[in-house]
């Protein structure tokens, strides 16, 4: 398990975007795990995670001040994603419109709410949730498996990790190869 915390600038408190492009490839034998997470002080968040070997994308661009318009949106795609084969994910967001692509299967949807900007703290994580003390973050498992070709907007996260421009925020083993899982057989 390794969680990467990415910081975008030191002066800004938030990262406010109208458009986002997030891409990655993963493989695992685990049915649960957070692949990507970002959240903001105003309640905005984006989380990509595996639950029961399906891919869940959870987003919130904010709710209105009266609580009459709720911004949370959750979309599920795929199944049997714990098969230890490479799976490709692409998230393209423009305002409230989303294209979620899993292994070349595109799902289009519109995010609930009335806001178009995603306001995140300038830190996002890949491979797990940051410890925030919130009950929701403690119940989610960190991703165990392999990830490659990680892109967040114009930032090549994989390349940044290789050049040691990132520091892990939670311990684990980082290698730039993918080890086959131990199946428990003795090979006799």
3D structure, described in words:
This is Contactin-associated protein-like 2. Residues 1-178 form the Laminin G domain. Pfam families: Laminin_G_2 (PF02210). The chain has helices spanning 135-138, 157-162, and strands spanning 3-7, 14-17, 19-27, 33-39, 45-51, 54-60, 72-77, 87-94, 97-102, 105-110, 118-121, 123-126, 146-152, 155-156, 168-170. By secondary structure, it is mainly β. The strands form three sheets. Strands 7-6-5-4-12-1-15 form a seven-stranded antiparallel β-sheet, with no helix packed on it. A six-stranded antiparallel β-sheet has the order 10-9-8-3-13-14. Strand 5 (45-51) and strand 6 (54-60) form a beta hairpin. The model has no long low-confidence stretch (mean pLDDT 82).
Question: What's this, in brief?
Answer:
This is Contactin-associated protein-like 2. This protein is mainly beta and 188 residues long.
Architecture blueprint of SSEs:
Elements: E1 3-7, E2 14-17, E3 19-27, E4 33-39, E5 45-51, E6 54-60, E7 72-77, E8 87-94, E9 97-102, E10 105-110, E11 118-121, E12 123-126, H1 135-138, E13 146-152, E14 155-156, H2 157-162, E15 168-170
Antiparallel strand pairs: 1-12, 1-15, 2-11, 3-8, 3-13, 4-5, 4-12, 5-6, 6-7, 8-9, 9-10, 13-14
């Amino acid at each position: 398990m390794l969680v990467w915390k990415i910081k975008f600038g030191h002066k800004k408190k938030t990262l406010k975007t109208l458009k986002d492009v997030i891409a990655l490839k993963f493989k695992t034998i685990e049915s649960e795990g957070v692949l990507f997470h970002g959240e903001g002080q105003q309640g905005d968040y984006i989380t990509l995670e595996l639950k029961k070997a399906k891919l869940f994308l959870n987003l919130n661009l904010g709710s209105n001040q009266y609580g009459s318009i709720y911004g949370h949106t959750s979309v599920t795609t795929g199944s049997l994603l714990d098969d230890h084969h490479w799976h490709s994910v692409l998230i393209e967001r423009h305002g409230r419109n989303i294209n979620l692509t899993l292994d070349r299967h595109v799902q289009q949807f519109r995010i609930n709410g009335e806001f178009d900007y995603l306001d995140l703290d300038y830190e996002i994580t890949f491979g797990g949730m940051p410890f925030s003390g919130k009950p929701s973050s403690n119940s989610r498992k960190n991703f165990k498996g392999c990830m490659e070709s990680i892109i967040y907007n114009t930032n090549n996260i994989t390349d940044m990790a290789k050049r040691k421009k990132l520091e892990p925020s939670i311990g684990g083993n980082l290698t730039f190869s993918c080890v086959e899982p131990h199946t428990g057989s003795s090979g006799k």
